[in-house]
């Protein structure tokens, strides 16, 4: 069966949400969009109270490099801008803000590999 990029991305985001829930984070919103782009997942870290903006990168192989290569300085700047726009629309305030990246590798093995990089920017 051949999957589309959208289907692979959606599967990766579903797996990332499960991963975050297992770590004690509560997802507030998925796929928030504005004219400047999209935030994949916005969650709250229930231990620290921080709002966490999560970028999900789903890959079916290693052809595009690892997690560090997936998030450039320009990407982090864009995520900060989007996070700021999202925060401006909220009535609630959080004690801290964090940007995380989750890489989901869906390969030949039956179990997807999940890498989670906290506090990238």
UniProtKB/TrEMBL annotation:
<protein>
    <recommendedName>
        <fullName>UPF0102 protein MCNF_29400</fullName>
    </recommendedName>
</protein>
<dbReference type="Pfam" id="PF02021">
    <property type="entry name" value="UPF0102"/>
</dbReference>
<dbReference type="InterPro" id="IPR011856">
    <property type="entry name" value="tRNA_endonuc-like_dom_sf"/>
</dbReference>
<dbReference type="InterPro" id="IPR011335">
    <property type="entry name" value="Restrct_endonuc-II-like"/>
</dbReference>
<comment type="similarity">
    <text>Belongs to the UPF0102 family.</text>
</comment>
<dbReference type="GO" id="GO:0003676">
    <property type="term" value="F:nucleic acid binding"/>
</dbReference>
<dbReference type="InterPro" id="IPR003509">
    <property type="entry name" value="UPF0102_YraN-like"/>
</dbReference>
């Amino acid at each position: 069966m051949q999957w589309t990029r959208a289907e692979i991305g959606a599967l990766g985001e579903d797996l990332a949400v499960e991963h975050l829930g297992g770590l004690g984070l509560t997802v507030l919103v998925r796929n928030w969009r504005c004219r400047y782009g999209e935030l994949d997942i916005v969650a709250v870290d229930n231990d620290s109270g921080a709002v966490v903006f999560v970028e999900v990168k789903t890959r079916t192989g290693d052809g595009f490099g690892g997690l560090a290569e997936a998030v450039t300085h320009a990407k982090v700047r864009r995520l900060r801008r989007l996070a700021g726009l999202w925060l401006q629309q909220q009535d609630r305030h959080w004690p801290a803000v964090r940007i995380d990246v989750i890489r989901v590798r869906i390969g030949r093995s039956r179990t997807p590999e999940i890498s989670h990089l906290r506090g990238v920017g």
